[in-house]
């Protein structure tokens, strides 16, 4: 049976809302006894537009002196849903809160501010957030002074903001992906006005440098660009994250050098599509391959990047990755489908042949490379034959691993208006068949490592057994082995004894000095 589509109309009924005041800066309304200060609200039509105005790079101090003690003696929790970009945004949010005097806690009852940093990619991520809000409502009743906020990609959607204003009046703050740097001012506004504060910029703003970040562990994420201009028909990201804008190379390089000085062992360069890096930098001819070449010269042992788009993966980048050094042998390259017609419907702007050609080039340049990918099954109109093309592509390219998803329509995307005509039982059956092929690949490639000695960056204890340590190889394979806890954060040599599908087991050979790129 086809899934029932959500009726969003009930979230747009503001007949019982009363406008209290309105000027060019904001609008105050009252809904069901709660006053709401709308400083800016999401607008899907504006989010679609790509402005011609230049993006400014600002180096201001994000937390004014008068707001540096507002959280003194108070505690915060940030819950993160979604991708690495959201994880990295949460590091910035935590950094800002700590500069305001707040301290981290894991105890909800101790928290004075709780923020949900949300994801809009799939419907189940959205459902999780509203489920979480249901639990937090009771906490808010017990502790009325608690500040509750929703931020991130979901906040960029009109229907979500309207739903919160209508049905979740206990929420105190809603802000989006473009104005995280405004968090100190929004917290102040929510604290002192006692109103719900809504500030969601529909158009991306400037690039704000020097934002504080709270990083943990020995691995760090570094944003190199924001936004996406690809407009794949199934994806909401170009609307929630805005147009592509690259950070200045000198700012990225300075941040990575600083992380190297702090002793970080691995960095991951982040962007919705890192391969488009530099296209918008009009005053220089400097692209992602150039940035990766500069990363090789920085004294940090491992450099990764995510996520890539096959369309912009050029020969220069392949050549640079072939130089090795601290550039690791793992490339995540989302393909989404193995059929050219489906790729065209998805607006991916490459063909099956292009993917095979690119994979061959990468394998020739980077020996022992691990290729991983993302795949959607059951896209509108996908036939059995077209799905078979995806299976054969996975076998031909030889992906080590794939994140696989059943297609689900996202409100506001072009694909949402296509007929979702692949029955759910067919989607599930295809997903199972796809996962079987992917798992066979994973086990086969992992089995080749039996008896090999690999370099592992030790990340911590295994989730399932505190006696076992877990870490990753340069090619991003998860390794479990026995060893003492003081090895966490170091590089060790491990001999592989038992390859499995999702991880590999091994024996510690010796601790090794951290390698330099």
TrEMBL record:
Cofactor(s), by name: [4Fe-4S] cluster
Entries under CDD domains matching the protein: Radical_SAM (cd01335)
Radical SAM core domain sequence ranges: 214-444
Pfam family, one: UPF0004
Binding site for [4Fe-4S] cluster 1: 83, 119, 153
TRAM domain mapped to chain residues: 447-510
Enzyme Commission number(s) from the entry: 2.8.4.3
Textual note on the cofactor: Binds 2 [4Fe-4S] clusters. One cluster is coordinated with 3 cysteines and an exchangeable S-adenosyl-L-methionine.
GO molecular function: 4 iron, 4 sulfur cluster binding; metal ion binding; tRNA-2-methylthio-N(6)-dimethylallyladenosine(37) synthase activity
Residue ranges annotated for the MTTase N-terminal domain, each copy included: 74-192
Localisation per UniProt entry: Cytoplasm
Binding site for [4Fe-4S] cluster 2: 228, 232, 235
Listed InterPro entries: Elp3/MiaA/NifB-like_rSAM, Methylthiotransferase, Methylthiotransferase_CS, Methylthiotransferase_N, Methylthiotransferase_N_sf, MiaB_methiolase, rSAM, rSAM_horseshoe
Record family assignment: Belongs to the methylthiotransferase family. MiaB subfamily.
Entry-linked HAMAP family: tRNA_metthiotr_MiaB
Matching NCBIfam families: miaB-methiolase, MiaB/RimO family radical SAM methylthiotransferase
Protein name stated in the entry: tRNA-2-methylthio-N(6)-dimethylallyladenosine synthase
Organism: Paenibacillus kribbensis
